[in-house]
What we know:
By secondary structure, this protein is of the alpha/beta class. The chain has one domain (61-468): FAD/NAD(P)-binding domain, CATH 3.50.50.60. It has 13 helices and 21 strands. The protein has helices spanning 20-37, 40-57, 60-63, 92-103, 136-168, 190-202, 212-217, 238-251, 318-324, 371-384, 430-445, 451-456, 468-498, and strands spanning 2-4, 79-82, 85-88, 108-111, 127-128, 180-184, 208-210, 226-230, 234-235, 255-257, 264-266, 271-275, 278-282, 284-287, 303-313, 331-334, 340-344, 350-358, 393-404, 410-414, 420-424. A hairpin with a 5-residue loop joins strand 17 (340-344) and strand 18. It starts with a strand and ends with a helix. Residues 6-43 have low confidence and may be disordered. The structure holds flavin-adenine dinucleotide. Flavin-adenine dinucleotide (FAD) binds at residues 88-94, 111-114, 118-121, 123-127, 129, 261-262, 288-292, 296, 308-310, 353, 399-401, 426, 428-432, 434.
Amino acid sequence: xxxxxxxxxxxxxxHSGVTRRTFVKGAAIATIVAPAMAAAGSVHAxxxxxxxxxxxxxxxxxxxxxxxxxxxxxxxxxxxVQADVVIVGAGFAGLSAALELAAHGAKVVVLEREFxxxxxxxxxxxxxxxxxxxxxxxxxxNIGQEKGKKIVSFYEEGVSFVERKLKEHGIDCDYNQSGxxxxxxxxxxxxxxxxxxxxxxxxxxxxxxxxxxxxxxxxIPPAFLFGxxxxxxxxLNPGKYVMGLRRAxxxxxxxxxxxxxxxxYVEGAVIKARTPRGSxxxxxxxxxxxxxxxxxxxxxxxxxxIRVSAIETEPLSAAQLAALGWPRREGIxxxxxxxESHRLTAHNTLLVTTKRISYPYGSKTPNVPDxxxxxxxxxxxxDRFPALRNIALRACWSGYxxxxxxxxxxxxxxxxxxxxxxxxxxxxxxxxxxxxxxxxIAKRIRGTEDELLAALRHDTPSxxxxxxxxxxxxxxxxVTNMLDDRLNSKVREAHYRKG
Length: 499
Ligand SMILES: Cc1cc2nc3c(=O)[nH]c(=O)nc-3n(C[C@H](O)[C@H](O)[C@H](O)COP(=O)(O)OP(=O)(O)OC[C@H]3O[C@@H](n4cnc5c(N)ncnc54)[C@H](O)[C@@H]3O)c2cc1C
């Protein structure tokens, strides 16, 4: 069977659906119309602020995610080559699989459409998180308690796996083994935090509740009132991590072809993967393309891409850091319907992600800035860190995670000979889990099925057809945004009342 792919999908760093002009127009409306309704004295101040926002957010083009193009770009594939395994996608999953296979003598070819780390692996928030905050409600009913325990073990093992690999490959990615906190910003979230903690404990997740006194004793910024703390995991620089994997894979003899999209493939006992100027023939193929997998004609009925964005501030000054406290720099996620995540980086910038997410119609994944999401993240930054209101942004970026209806990973095989492996659906937890899944799939290709990989096999619910899918997903997100906004307004008003 020949799979022909849609050449108009994804990729292309220069392609943009939301144009700069649309954004500037939006900013102009906000700058001109809104202040006209306000008192004359505030007009100037607001337009100055808006102009600054526009200038800050416009830096997206210059800075992108954590990874800019590597210094040693690997040449694109020219001609026809043979391999034992061809892997499509050079993120955590693809590179981890390549490393495991190469370590056991396999000839491995990796095809990457752009460059290693171009996808979510180079754009995430860098939380090396286990099971804290996973969506138990969405999967426990279907898979039951016993399998649920294995799922929790899988997430937790993802943390240990990455910690081992960082040591094994000598990857310095500013890993801060600080533990993580799922925090409440309002008393009304306490029940939710405690309930998540209770279910997690039943499934084997060890964590503790930090009340107000404990949070203040740890020096956590005051907007975060209480939380569910797990000592496992922490934060890292995902750009350095994925580049470390890339270096290790090249050292191990993996052939990585960058700027080389898979265009189509012919199924069979030997698969032929076609690229613009060549092909790879191999008895095994692995699609490590995560959110981009539906574009390849695979898993379109099981997973959808979700756009998630991030903003990063300029480095905080010594005085700002001292005032902030937060000595251990635990990665914080909030207990909103759509969480906010807040963390400090090794170079003292503050990174805020998530809060607003969206599903692009037709499961497309254009590489576009999402200025609405950046604005919302900026509001979250100001809400949680009012003292940093004037800090400038240095970068904003967006990427795609892959989501299944039950929020569980989707791994398996497809093709006429069941020799095409795939790994998707890891939601926002892929730093640990996609690294681990890549490794486990490689072991499976070598003939050993890990117990945790077996535990991931289950019936993934089917997605709705378009346009229903777009309406239902974004409709649900709209409702959760409204609930989160209502809570945020309440907290903001209380803050201003206090002075
Ligand atoms: C803003 C954001 C914040 C996040 N925060 C966190 C976090 O803090 N912690 C956490 O655990 N997870 C987080 N995630 C999720 C995590 O980043 C992902 O789950 C993980 O990186 C997925 O890795 P992957 O290797 O499966 O896929 P990706 O990193 O997406 O790699 C897929 C690769 O396939 C390539 N590709 C696609 N199509 C083709 C083709 N046709 N031919 C060749 N190559 C192709 C792409 O260019 C890409 O490089 C976040 C994600 C985002 C976007």
